[in-house]
Design a protein that fits this description.
The chain has 172 residues and is α+β, with helices and mostly antiparallel strands. 14% of the residues lie in helices and 28% in strands. Strands 1, 2, 3, 4, 5, 6, 7, 8 and 9 form a 9-stranded antiparallel beta sheet that branches.
Length: 172
């Protein structure tokens, strides 16, 4: 007797796969009306470009986040990320993400994993991954980073921190 073919079964706690738009500057989400490719400037702040990402990973208005392209350069940075990283938007734009964030432990496996996750997400991998990173220049601080694809154009969305204090580790 041949066993039945394998198939993916979703767990009851998993969120449904869906996509939503957000502003790359202020993280506001447009109304339910469709987003036009010609009119992708945020109506809320008037400055950010509307990007699409997985609904369960889209940043909220108070989240710190960056958008990193396939060449690992920063293409967008939220106001909260500017404050967390101690950098202005002008200083961060088109600069290598490695100038602002690095793996939490440079000696461990995470050093290469952070860069690999950014590359995979900017290439279109739909998997949401998390790991601890370290804001460069802030010693003893570790922040959880959620990495997921966004676009267009294809890029990696890096949401720093989470909804609780345990997402920030302060190492003495």
């Amino acid at each position: 007797m041949t066993p039945p073919p394998l198939r993916l079964i979703r767990g009851s706690l998993e969120e449904p796969d869906g996509w939503s738009w957000f502003c790359g500057q202020c993280a506001s989400r447009p109304s339910e009306e469709p987003v036009s490719p010609r009119g992708r400037v945020c109506r809320s702040c008037g400055m950010g470009l509307l990007l699409e990402t997985r609904s369960n990973a889209a940043p909220l208005r108070d989240d710190a986040f960056l958008v990193v392209d396939s060449s690992l350069t920063v293409q967008a940075v939220s106001r909260r990320a500017q404050a967390l990283l101690g950098v202005s938007e002008e200083e961060a734009m088109s600069q290598p993400v490695a100038q602002f964030l690095g793996a939490a432990d440079a000696e461990a496996r995470e050093a290469g994993e952070f860069i690999n996750l950014l590359r995979a997400a900017s290439a279109g991998s739909e998997e949401v991954r998390s790991l601890f990173v370290r804001p460069l220049g802030a010693f003893g601080v570790r922040v959880i980073a959620r990495i997921v694809p966004c676009g267009p154009p294809r890029a990696a969305l890096v949401v720093l921190g989470g909804r609780s204090a345990r997402d920030f580790l302060y190492v003495v």
